[in-house]
Design brief:
This protein is of the alpha/beta class. The protein has 20 helices and 16 strands. The chain has a five-stranded parallel beta sheet, with helices on both faces. The protein has a five-stranded parallel beta sheet with strand order 7-10-13-6-14. The chain has a two-stranded antiparallel sheet with strand order 8-9. The protein starts with 7 loop residues before the first strand and ends in a 7-residue tail after the last helix.
């Protein structure tokens, strides 16, 4: 019988007492009881005990003494095939994560451990009501920054957002990015910073949804020692840390009204005053704010200041969901697979047209992030170096047996993703089609500009001139 939420048990496999205590305290916040095993041999031995039979999940650090992590995962799978297992890897431990998942791990999280991500991973791997198989989200994502040339999309609404973002990058104004979860708001924000005159400066990120509302102001502006209960030390705020660079304020809609007022004051004066402090410090930073909620509705409800909205929205755009640009699914999938192929432990991975038709027919409620997760999981679990429709059984089942004929609109062999017609049936302007072909080529050849120019049959200087004419920053 499955344990109820407040009695779920996880076995923590880690040899460091301090880390054991940290993880035990962390999982207890999510209603988990913990059992400790100092090494992999002890963990396997516990499986046959009464305590071990009551386990709902296993959490193992890649540095736990004993077996190699992949060997441990495989051995645990042999004894308890259905027991969910989450691996904790080092920051650069993608290769370990890949080998562990190939051996049967359910998910992985990277150090430094974000409490919300770890609890989210545990909740998902034990859930019987959520998405299964390759549709189950992975907690960690591929976070290497993309340049504008690598952001794949040819639908008119996506191209419009891309054009605004590229233009805003060269300016110094605040930027507001709206969009549903997984549409790529952080990718765009990082690309804006990388393409801006501030690219050599710091890029600092604050996720307001992951912080207690009462601590958001302290995180942004900093605080003096003793400013409030628990303020044992002086803390420099993120705005000061980002001086000379950019700050991404993710989920700006979560900021409480009191902190919103301080942010308006900062945007008007350019000066930061710590909570509990009296000194004002001039700071030069560009704010890139993101929101998943329509701010106009929050303004009407009195939960978001109208003056802050206008101060942050000198440049503003909304990223469309993937279901609104299904013609982009194919080229985006190819591009993401090229990036996955470059990860440690992964070889070159291709994908068949039948598989792309299947992917293009799916609605992708989790947007680009979900597509990336599905491709990564499929690439890890596939026994070949080419993904076929057989590698996406959960999607096929969700579609009721396969892709509809409508998917043929979204795929046309190697020309996939280049939209020729406007919604009214007329052809798109040649300049737009040419821009899409160039973007597609840059993504397909992974930013190797000499190869892009050669394959397009033009000179490298001509390619860079076209990129400049189209408002696309040249690749490094």
């Amino acid at each position: 019988m499955t344990n109820t939420r407040d009695t779920r048990t996880v076995m923590i496999v880690d040899s460091e007492p301090a880390q054991q205590r940290f993880l035990a305290a962390l999982v207890s916040r999510g209603g988990w009881r913990s059992v400790i095993a100092p090494d992999t041999d002890t963990a396997l031995a516990k499986l046959g005990t009464q305590e071990g039979m009551a386990l709902d999940a296993v959490l193992v650090d890649q540095g736990a003494p004993g077996m190699e992590i992949a060997e441990f995962v495989a051995e645990l799978r042999r004894w308890r095939p259905a027991l969910p297992l989450v691996v904790i890897t080092m920051r650069n431990g993608v290769e370990v994560a890949v080998s562990a998942m190939r051996a049967g791990a359910s998910d992985f999280v990277q150090k430094p451990i974000a409490p919300d991500r770890l609890l989210e991973a545990l909740d998902r791997v034990v859930s019987t009501s959520g998405p299964q198989g390759e549709l189950r989200p992975l907690t960690e994502k591929l976070r290497a920054p993309l340049a504008f040339e690598e952001i794949i999309g040819s639908s008119p609404n996506f191209r419009s957002a891309l054009a605004i973002a590229a233009k805003a990058a060269r300016a110094r104004v605040p930027v507001m990015i709206n969009g549903k979860p997984g549409t790529g708001k952080e990718v765009f924000a990082r690309a804006i910073h990388s393409a801006s005159p501030r690219a050599r400066g710091q890029l600092v990120m604050v996720d307001c949804s992951a912080v207690s509302p009462g601590l958001i102001g302290s995180g942004l502006f900093g605080h003096e020692r003793g400013a409030f209960a628990g303020a044992f030390d002086r803390q420099v705020g993120r705005l000061v840390q980002a001086d000379g660079g950019s700050i991404i304020i993710d989920h700006v809609e979560c900021i409480p009204l009191e902190t919103q007022a301080k942010l308006v004051e900062f945007l008007n004066s350019g000066e930061v005053q710590m909570i509990g402090g009296s000194i004002r410090q001039s700071v030069d930073v560009r704010i890139i704010a993101t929101s998943t909620s329509p701010l106009d509705k929050l303004i009407e409800a009195g939960h978001f200041r109208e003056d802050l909205f206008y101060a942050l929205s000198s440049a503003q755009f909304t990223l469309p969901s993937l279901s609104e640009r299904r013609g982009d699914v194919g080229p985006l999938a190819r591009h993401l697979l090229a990036r996955i192929s470059g990860l440690p432990g992964m070889g070159t991975i291709g994908v068949t047209d039948d598989a792309l038709r299947l992917l293009a027919a799916y609605a992708w409620p989790g947007n680009v992030r979900q597509l990336q997760d599905v491709l990564f999981r499929a690439a890890v679990e596939s026994k070949t170096d080419v993904l076929t429709s057989a590698d996406f059984r959960a999607i096929e089942a969700a579609l009721g047996g396969g892709a509809s004929n409508d998917a043929d609109v979204a795929i046309n062999g190697e020309a996939i993703g280049v939209t020729l017609y406007l919604p009214d049936g007329n052809l798109r302007p040649l300049e737009e089609i040419e821009a899409d072909v160039i973007r597609l080529a840059i993504g397909h050849y992974r930013g190797r500009m000499s190869e892009v120019a050669r394959r397009l049959g033009i000179g490298r200087s001509t390619l860079y001139r076209k990129l400049s004419d189209l408002g696309i920053d040249t690749a490094a």
